[in-house]
Recover the amino acids of this structure.
């Protein structure tokens, strides 16, 4: 039985995100007090770079990446009606990662705007591969998830091949592929912010349609929902959000899987509330992972993707164990 809290969980999630954001400003090699952080905000000065050009952009980007991945996960689960679906497990993140890695190692001087564009193309191609493969067999939830894992592994082998053929750029690519916000700054902000802000209203437009679709395609058509249009639009929005997030932070795993599940536990399955809750939880997961990544053993920094994998992999195994028919 699902556990649904009634004490304003969205408000608690917002408070948790604000609290994590404040902690993020204090976390790092430089030990700053509140006065130094406030003075850096107001006047710049000695700690201007650390606060305004290192910690603050990482904070903002972590929230936006987590929001994008959380929204992507809830949409792909809603349209496929598969609790095992997520952009990284379905191979979408790997497709975006392969395309972006190809650009990084083959055309290292490419303009910054080209990376998210190439990542989106890679994510869409990966989604098409999954769809074509699924049509060959009767897709059950676990089988579809395992198909995505297989395609993800295939695409990841392409990434490994690129790194072997182009060893000079291996360090830059590896930091990016493990999922990290290290070295990110305000340059990555505009496109990611625009994508998230433009696609959130689309996600809300899809909300009640996904609720109706969850009752079955025949019922949805009877209620006037254009099923194919909703499915295609939801998948495109999911792929774009995941791909743009991957283009900024690399392959941060399991956020798109965990966020919708935790959101359903807290607020139920109605998409009008599930969508903002999944976005908030995704933002919290990525931000907390980034805090732990740079705060556990400073000055050593772990990739944030390692932290999310440690949390998400056991949960994915638990979900697989619940499906006996695959």
């Amino acid at each position: 039985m699902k556990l649904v809290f009634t004490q304003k969980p969205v408000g608690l999630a917002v408070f948790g995100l604000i609290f994590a954001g404040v902690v993020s400003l204090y976390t790092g090699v430089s030990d700053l007090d509140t006065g130094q952080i406030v003075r850096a905000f107001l006047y710049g000065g000695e700690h201007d770079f650390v606060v305004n050009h290192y910690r603050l952009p990482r904070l903002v980007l972590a929230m936006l990446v987590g929001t994008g991945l959380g929204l992507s996960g809830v949409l792909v689960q809603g349209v496929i009606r598969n609790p095992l679906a997520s952009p990284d497990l379905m191979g979408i993140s790997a497709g975006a990662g392969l395309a972006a890695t190809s650009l990084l190692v083959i055309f290292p001087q490419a303009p910054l705007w080209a990376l998210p564009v190439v990542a989106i193309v890679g994510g869409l191609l990966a989604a098409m591969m999954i769809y074509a493969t699924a049509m060959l067999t009767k897709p059950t939830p676990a089988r579809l998830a395992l198909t995505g894992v297989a395609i993800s592994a295939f695409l990841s082998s392409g990434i490994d091949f690129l790194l072997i053929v182009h060893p000079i750029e291996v360090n830059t690519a590896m930091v990016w592929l493990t999922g990290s916000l290290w070295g990110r700054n305000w340059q990555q902000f505009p496109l990611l912010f625009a994508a998230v802000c433009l696609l959130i209203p689309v996600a809300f437009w899809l909300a009640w349609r996904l609720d109706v679709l969850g009752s079955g395609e025949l019922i949805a058509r009877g209620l006037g929902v254009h099923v194919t249009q909703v499915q295609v639009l939801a998948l495109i929005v999911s792929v774009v959000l995941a791909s743009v997030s991957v283009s900024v932070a690399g392959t941060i795993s399991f956020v798109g899987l965990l966020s919708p599940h935790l959101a359903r536990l807290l607020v139920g399955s109605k998409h009008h509330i599930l969508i903002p809750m999944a976005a908030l939880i995704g933002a919290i997961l990525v931000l907390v992972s980034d805090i732990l990544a740079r705060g556990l053993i400073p000055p050593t920094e772990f990739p944030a993707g390692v932290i999310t994998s440690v949390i998400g992999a056991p949960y994915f195994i638990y979900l697989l164990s619940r499906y006996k028919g695959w």
Q: What stands out?
A: The chain has 13 helices and no strands. The two ends are 23 Å apart (CA to CA). The domain at 9-321 is CATH 1.10.3470.10 (ABC transporter involved in vitamin B12 uptake, BtuC). The chain has one domain: 9-321.
